[in-house]
Amino acid sequence: MRNRLYSLSLVLCLAPSLNSLVLAETGSDGLYFDIDRMKWRDSSGICHTCTAGNGFPIPVIKDGFYFDPNDKKWHGPDSGDICHTCTPRNGFPTPQIPEITPDIRTLERVCHNPNSPCTIDGWSFQANDLTFSYTALERMSRHYSRPFYAILLKSIKVKIVDDPTKDCGSGISEKKRLATQKLFPRRKVFTSTFGCLGAGVWYSNTNNKYDFLAVYAGETMREAKKVLKKVKATGRFKRANIRSMQVVVDTTH
């Protein structure tokens, strides 16, 4: 996925069936902005990495016109040309676009003891999250833990749950995670929730089209290999493999 937003002043059209703004630039990633849910999407569902910090700011829509956060101009709904009459006097004020701070590399170690999770003021980790501590989160930022190794035990295709009123239970179940945790009492077993609407915790160097079950495996490859050997010895996870990653606490949603 490109780490930038194609200028919305390229080729845009309104998709009546989706009531959404569609990026129609030839050879693009097939991404479009869903006006109903105010989220960037692709053919498989919501793009959770398409955040303002990644170069995908939210356009502002008014009467079919849209405000491009990149050039800070209002554009017409049909041609995509700059609307020179769309001024504050004519009812088109300049929206306030929040400032995006850089990614924050906290270098904080993850809290791998399942019986002693860490906390961050103003943030609620879930039971399935691998946690780390930090003084205070910045708005519209992604906060990265210190890198570590994990053993990926299982993965399943993501089923997007984009309705905030529904329980996000389409990924790997908490029951499955807790059962696996009993096999590794001193190492946190955690799961990703890429299919959840606005998932606030995710993991670097992983595929957001799949949710996974993993166990913490240390900060060195030597330790990770020892953990992998123990995992294989259970006979339950034949496709287990080592993955370097970071916990990311994401406040850009």
Question: Can you describe this structure?
Answer:
The chain is mainly beta and 253 residues long. The protein folds into 2 domains: 19-97, no CATH class; 103-251, no CATH class. The protein is 8% helix and 27% strand. It has helices spanning 174-181, 221-233; strands at 12-15, 20-23, 32-34, 39-42, 45-46, 60-62, 65-68, 73-75, 104-105, 110-111, 131-132, 142-144, 148-157, 189-191, 201-203, 210-216, 241-245, 247-250. Strands 1-2-3-4-5 form a 5-stranded antiparallel sheet, with no helix packed on it. It starts with 11 loop residues before the first strand and ends with a strand. Mean pLDDT is 79; it is low at 1-28.
Work out the helix count: 2
What structural class is derived from the secondary structure elements?
mainly beta
Based on DSSP secondary structure assignment, what is the total number of beta strands? 18
Given the C-alpha coordinates, what overall shape results? Answer: elongated
Parts with pLDDT < 50 across at least 5 consecutive residues: 1-28
Strand order of the largest sheet: 1-2-3-4-5
Mean pLDDT: 79
Largest sheet: 5 strands, antiparallel
Separation, N- and C-terminal Cα atoms = 18 Å
Keywords:
mainly beta, 18 strands, 253 residues, disordered N terminus, four-stranded mixed sheet, 8% helix, 2 helices, 2 domains
